[in-house]
Amino acid sequence: MMTRLIFCLLLCCMLQPAQAHKPSDSYLSLDVQGERITGQWDIALRDLDYAIGLDSDDDGKLTWDEIRNRHAAIAAYALEHLRLSSEAGDCRVTPEQQLIDDHTDGAYNVLRFHASCPQPLQTLAISYRLFADLDPQHKGLLRLTHNGLTSTAIFEPAHARQALPLLAPDRWQQFIAYVKDGVWHIWIGYDHILFLLSLLLPAVLLAAPANNLRGAFIDVLKVVTAFTLAHSLTLTLASLSVITLPSRLVESAIAFSVVLAAINNLYPLFRGRRPWAAFGFGLIHGFGFASVLIDLGLPQGALMASLFGFNLGVEVGQLCIVAVFLPTAFFLRHSWFYRRLLTVGSAMIALVATVWFVQRAFDVQAQWIGL
Known about the structure:
Layout: H1 2-15, E1 25-33, E2 36-44, H2 45-52, H3 64-69, H4 71-80, E3 82-86, E4 89-90, E5 92-103, E6 106-116, E7 123-128, E8 139-146, E9 149-155, E10 161-165, H5 171-187, H6 190-200, H7 213-239, H8 247-263, H9 274-296, H10 303-332, H11 336-361
Parallel strand pairs: 1-8
Antiparallel strand pairs: 1-2, 2-6, 3-4, 3-7, 5-6, 7-10, 8-9
Helix pairs in contact: 1-11, 5-10, 6-8, 7-9, 7-10, 8-9, 8-11
């Protein structure tokens, strides 16, 4: 079990782009005024290139001319997978302007459009199927505004159609959506997971009293608690825009933290201070967790509840990982495989994280788009 978990994580990490903890998502903003809807849809260029082909000369780089020449195809493909409707029938969607914008995980095509509905809206039904046939993990993050009220929703293949009331957003449903997104965010956050696992791997091999299940549990609890407290603090501060840091600095620091955590298993850098290391680097990871909330935007009417829901989801996802890791690691702790995992596995993690650091610190991925 542990072999497959670590192997799959490393394989996925090597296949992911530089911004390792945000795979495929898009950001859909809708502003409803009567029977008219104004929309903006931010879709990752890497996903559009995979779906419909944007790199016309196959040189591995995108230019503005290549993207502009595919504007009609981009709009047609996107709007074929989005349906807006009222109680009286479908709304007619018309594309307008297209731009390029940078998100925390790369360049996005910005499609602006408007929609005309048969009558003023009280409930907006949305069918979202973007990339549903290509990527079952893709998610659409919606921000809906109407008369100063903001509501949010998360679309995925299992929840491709949702009806959103405009007069009074369902706060409980909104809270649950943020909890689910927090769980999803940590589960696909390979850099966060590898950092945590690197710190936890020695827990079952330490000297007494940690060389028993109770001692190992206490050691894991200290590390996880320190990491949780730290990233919860900066997640909150960053999401509320109290503190902001450049995303390039944050992502580079997260990758560097994974390198150090893995190297610590080969050469003791922290020397019994792993909880302090978890707290210190957890402060940086919190800014990374906040990036998806910054891109999505928190609803002003339920700001703290949504923030708490997302943070709770991150903790639930994190505890699920620990619940699988601890008993498996303790059972295998005296095996040749586990000791090899601690050394060879940590070396592989350090190598992958070094690649991430170089990509992020020196903006290697930006060369994909020659703008």
